[in-house]
Amino acid sequence: MFEFSTRKLNVPEIWKSSFGLYKQTLSKVWYLAFIMILILLGCFNIAIKTYIPNQALEHVQKPTFHFSPIAALCYVIAMIVGLFLISVILHRMYNLATDPNYSLQRSIRFVLSKYLIIFSCVLVVYIATVTGLFLFIIPGIFIGILFIFSLLFVLFEDSGWLSAIKRSCKLVWGNWWRTFAVIIAPALLLVVIQNVISLIIGIHYIWINILVISLVMSALKPYFDAVLLVQFNDLKLREKE
After folding, report:
1. pLDDT score recorded for residue 52
2. Range of the domain at 43
Protein backbone atom coordinates (compact mmCIF):
# COMPACT_ATOMS: atom_id res chain seq x y z
CA MET A 1 0.00 0.00 0.00
CA PHE A 2 1.29 3.44 -0.92
CA GLU A 3 2.29 5.88 1.81
CA PHE A 4 3.57 9.42 1.42
CA SER A 5 7.22 9.62 2.40
CA THR A 6 8.20 10.99 5.79
CA ARG A 7 11.69 11.88 4.55
CA LYS A 8 12.95 14.17 1.81
CA LEU A 9 13.24 12.56 -1.63
CA ASN A 10 15.48 13.30 -4.59
CA VAL A 11 13.99 13.69 -8.08
CA PRO A 12 14.23 10.01 -9.18
CA GLU A 13 12.77 8.93 -5.83
CA ILE A 14 9.83 11.29 -6.33
CA TRP A 15 9.11 9.76 -9.74
CA LYS A 16 9.34 6.27 -8.26
CA SER A 17 7.12 7.12 -5.30
CA SER A 18 4.64 8.79 -7.64
CA PHE A 19 4.38 5.56 -9.62
CA GLY A 20 3.34 3.77 -6.43
CA LEU A 21 0.51 6.27 -5.87
CA TYR A 22 -0.39 6.05 -9.56
CA LYS A 23 -0.68 2.23 -9.47
CA GLN A 24 -2.81 2.27 -6.34
CA THR A 25 -5.30 4.88 -7.59
CA LEU A 26 -5.44 4.53 -11.39
CA SER A 27 -8.37 2.10 -11.46
CA LYS A 28 -10.42 4.57 -9.39
CA VAL A 29 -9.67 7.77 -11.30
CA TRP A 30 -8.93 6.89 -14.95
CA TYR A 31 -12.58 7.18 -16.04
CA LEU A 32 -12.77 10.66 -14.49
CA ALA A 33 -9.64 11.61 -16.44
CA PHE A 34 -11.18 10.16 -19.61
CA ILE A 35 -14.37 12.21 -19.23
CA MET A 36 -12.36 15.35 -18.43
CA ILE A 37 -10.02 15.05 -21.43
CA LEU A 38 -12.85 14.10 -23.80
CA ILE A 39 -14.88 17.14 -22.75
CA LEU A 40 -11.89 19.49 -22.95
CA LEU A 41 -10.78 18.33 -26.39
CA GLY A 42 -14.33 18.17 -27.71
CA CYS A 43 -15.22 21.67 -26.52
CA PHE A 44 -11.95 23.15 -27.80
CA ASN A 45 -12.46 21.49 -31.19
CA ILE A 46 -15.95 22.94 -31.53
CA ALA A 47 -14.70 26.35 -30.42
CA ILE A 48 -11.78 26.36 -32.85
CA LYS A 49 -14.03 25.46 -35.78
CA THR A 50 -15.96 28.68 -35.26
CA TYR A 51 -12.77 30.63 -36.07
CA ILE A 52 -11.67 28.66 -39.13
CA PRO A 53 -13.29 29.50 -42.48
CA ASN A 54 -14.94 26.62 -44.30
CA GLN A 55 -12.50 25.45 -46.98
CA ALA A 56 -15.39 24.81 -49.33
CA LEU A 57 -16.18 28.53 -49.21
CA GLU A 58 -12.75 29.89 -50.04
CA HIS A 59 -14.24 32.38 -52.47
CA VAL A 60 -16.26 33.96 -49.67
CA GLN A 61 -14.49 36.69 -47.74
CA LYS A 62 -14.55 35.75 -44.06
CA PRO A 63 -12.61 37.12 -41.11
CA THR A 64 -9.95 34.83 -39.64
CA PHE A 65 -10.99 35.87 -36.15
CA HIS A 66 -14.36 36.92 -34.84
CA PHE A 67 -16.35 36.68 -31.65
CA SER A 68 -18.50 33.57 -31.49
CA PRO A 69 -21.00 32.94 -28.69
CA ILE A 70 -20.66 29.20 -29.36
CA ALA A 71 -16.88 29.35 -28.98
CA ALA A 72 -17.16 31.39 -25.78
CA LEU A 73 -19.70 28.93 -24.37
CA CYS A 74 -17.49 25.96 -25.24
CA TYR A 75 -14.48 27.51 -23.52
CA VAL A 76 -16.53 28.26 -20.40
CA ILE A 77 -17.96 24.74 -20.27
CA ALA A 78 -14.51 23.22 -20.77
CA MET A 79 -12.99 25.32 -17.99
CA ILE A 80 -15.79 24.76 -15.47
CA VAL A 81 -16.18 21.01 -16.02
CA GLY A 82 -12.47 20.36 -16.53
CA LEU A 83 -11.50 22.20 -13.36
CA PHE A 84 -14.17 20.37 -11.38
CA LEU A 85 -12.99 16.96 -12.58
CA ILE A 86 -9.27 17.58 -12.07
CA SER A 87 -10.04 18.81 -8.54
CA VAL A 88 -12.03 15.63 -7.82
CA ILE A 89 -9.22 13.48 -9.24
CA LEU A 90 -6.54 15.15 -7.11
CA HIS A 91 -8.67 15.07 -3.97
CA ARG A 92 -9.57 11.42 -4.50
CA MET A 93 -5.98 10.30 -5.24
CA TYR A 94 -4.64 12.08 -2.18
CA ASN A 95 -7.22 10.58 0.15
CA LEU A 96 -7.06 7.09 -1.35
CA ALA A 97 -3.41 7.01 -0.31
CA THR A 98 -4.48 6.98 3.35
CA ASP A 99 -7.91 5.37 3.03
CA PRO A 100 -8.44 2.83 0.19
CA ASN A 101 -12.19 2.95 0.82
CA TYR A 102 -12.46 6.72 0.44
CA SER A 103 -15.55 7.27 -1.71
CA LEU A 104 -15.92 9.24 -4.90
CA GLN A 105 -19.05 10.88 -3.47
CA ARG A 106 -17.04 12.40 -0.62
CA SER A 107 -14.58 13.96 -3.05
CA ILE A 108 -17.38 15.29 -5.23
CA ARG A 109 -19.18 16.84 -2.26
CA PHE A 110 -15.97 18.42 -0.99
CA VAL A 111 -15.03 19.92 -4.35
CA LEU A 112 -18.55 21.27 -4.83
CA SER A 113 -18.39 22.93 -1.41
CA LYS A 114 -15.09 24.63 -2.34
CA TYR A 115 -15.69 25.20 -6.01
CA LEU A 116 -16.05 28.99 -5.92
CA ILE A 117 -12.70 29.29 -4.14
CA ILE A 118 -11.15 26.72 -6.49
CA PHE A 119 -12.40 28.57 -9.56
CA SER A 120 -11.22 31.97 -8.27
CA CYS A 121 -7.79 30.60 -7.41
CA VAL A 122 -7.21 28.84 -10.74
CA LEU A 123 -8.57 31.79 -12.73
CA VAL A 124 -6.06 34.18 -11.11
CA VAL A 125 -3.23 31.68 -11.65
CA TYR A 126 -4.29 31.18 -15.28
CA ILE A 127 -4.43 34.91 -16.03
CA ALA A 128 -1.05 35.53 -14.39
CA THR A 129 0.60 32.62 -16.21
CA VAL A 130 -0.85 33.44 -19.63
CA THR A 131 0.10 37.09 -19.23
CA GLY A 132 3.67 36.04 -18.46
CA LEU A 133 3.73 33.73 -21.48
CA PHE A 134 2.53 36.50 -23.79
CA LEU A 135 5.22 38.85 -22.49
CA PHE A 136 8.40 36.82 -22.93
CA ILE A 137 7.38 33.15 -22.31
CA ILE A 138 9.97 32.66 -19.53
CA PRO A 139 8.05 34.83 -16.99
CA GLY A 140 4.98 32.70 -17.69
CA ILE A 141 6.88 29.48 -17.02
CA PHE A 142 8.35 30.94 -13.82
CA ILE A 143 4.93 32.08 -12.57
CA GLY A 144 3.26 28.81 -13.56
CA ILE A 145 5.72 26.76 -11.49
CA LEU A 146 5.56 29.21 -8.61
CA PHE A 147 1.75 28.96 -8.45
CA ILE A 148 1.48 25.27 -9.33
CA PHE A 149 0.42 24.10 -5.86
CA SER A 150 -2.22 26.78 -5.28
CA LEU A 151 -5.07 24.37 -6.05
CA LEU A 152 -3.64 21.77 -3.67
CA PHE A 153 -3.63 24.25 -0.80
CA VAL A 154 -7.32 24.91 -1.42
CA LEU A 155 -8.08 21.19 -1.57
CA PHE A 156 -5.99 19.95 1.35
CA GLU A 157 -5.31 22.85 3.70
CA ASP A 158 -8.60 24.77 3.53
CA SER A 159 -6.88 27.91 2.18
CA GLY A 160 -8.69 30.80 0.54
CA TRP A 161 -7.73 31.55 -3.06
CA LEU A 162 -5.33 34.38 -2.17
CA SER A 163 -3.68 32.58 0.73
CA ALA A 164 -3.37 29.45 -1.45
CA ILE A 165 -1.42 31.40 -4.07
CA LYS A 166 0.79 32.95 -1.40
CA ARG A 167 1.41 29.56 0.22
CA SER A 168 2.34 28.04 -3.13
CA CYS A 169 4.84 30.84 -3.78
CA LYS A 170 6.37 30.37 -0.35
CA LEU A 171 6.55 26.59 -0.77
CA VAL A 172 8.20 26.69 -4.20
CA TRP A 173 10.47 29.68 -3.53
CA GLY A 174 13.97 28.31 -3.08
CA ASN A 175 12.91 25.01 -4.66
CA TRP A 176 11.85 26.32 -8.07
CA TRP A 177 14.41 24.38 -10.09
CA ARG A 178 13.73 21.19 -8.12
CA THR A 179 10.00 21.52 -8.79
CA PHE A 180 10.63 22.27 -12.47
CA ALA A 181 12.91 19.24 -12.76
CA VAL A 182 10.33 16.96 -11.14
CA ILE A 183 7.39 17.91 -13.39
CA ILE A 184 9.06 18.68 -16.74
CA ALA A 185 9.71 15.05 -17.75
CA PRO A 186 6.16 13.70 -17.20
CA ALA A 187 4.69 16.90 -18.67
CA LEU A 188 6.78 16.61 -21.84
CA LEU A 189 5.94 12.92 -22.09
CA LEU A 190 2.22 13.74 -22.17
CA VAL A 191 2.73 16.42 -24.82
CA VAL A 192 4.88 14.17 -27.03
CA ILE A 193 2.46 11.22 -26.84
CA GLN A 194 -0.52 13.44 -27.63
CA ASN A 195 1.22 14.91 -30.67
CA VAL A 196 2.38 11.50 -31.90
CA ILE A 197 -1.19 10.19 -31.74
CA SER A 198 -2.43 13.24 -33.66
CA LEU A 199 0.21 12.72 -36.36
CA ILE A 200 -0.56 9.00 -36.72
CA ILE A 201 -4.34 9.40 -36.97
CA GLY A 202 -4.28 12.70 -38.85
CA ILE A 203 -6.39 15.83 -38.65
CA HIS A 204 -9.03 14.51 -41.06
CA TYR A 205 -10.34 12.08 -38.43
CA ILE A 206 -10.63 14.62 -35.65
CA TRP A 207 -13.19 12.85 -33.46
CA ILE A 208 -11.37 9.51 -33.70
CA ASN A 209 -8.24 11.48 -32.82
CA ILE A 210 -9.97 12.99 -29.79
CA LEU A 211 -11.32 9.62 -28.63
CA VAL A 212 -7.96 7.84 -28.89
CA ILE A 213 -6.10 10.70 -27.18
CA SER A 214 -8.69 10.71 -24.39
CA LEU A 215 -8.29 6.96 -23.84
CA VAL A 216 -4.49 7.05 -23.83
CA MET A 217 -4.22 10.21 -21.74
CA SER A 218 -6.73 8.90 -19.20
CA ALA A 219 -4.20 6.14 -18.46
CA LEU A 220 -1.20 8.50 -18.33
CA LYS A 221 -2.44 11.83 -16.95
CA PRO A 222 -3.04 10.44 -13.41
CA TYR A 223 0.71 9.79 -13.16
CA PHE A 224 1.38 13.50 -13.65
CA ASP A 225 -1.19 14.22 -10.93
CA ALA A 226 0.56 11.72 -8.66
CA VAL A 227 3.87 13.52 -9.27
CA LEU A 228 2.28 16.81 -8.19
CA LEU A 229 0.94 15.26 -5.00
CA VAL A 230 4.22 13.58 -4.05
CA GLN A 231 6.22 16.72 -4.82
CA PHE A 232 3.74 18.74 -2.76
CA ASN A 233 4.32 16.43 0.19
CA ASP A 234 8.10 16.55 -0.29
CA LEU A 235 8.22 20.36 -0.35
CA LYS A 236 6.11 20.55 2.81
CA LEU A 237 8.67 18.30 4.54
CA ARG A 238 11.45 20.63 3.40
CA GLU A 239 9.48 23.66 4.56
CA LYS A 240 9.45 22.31 8.13
CA GLU A 241 13.24 22.37 8.36
Report:
1. 47
2. 17-54+65-239
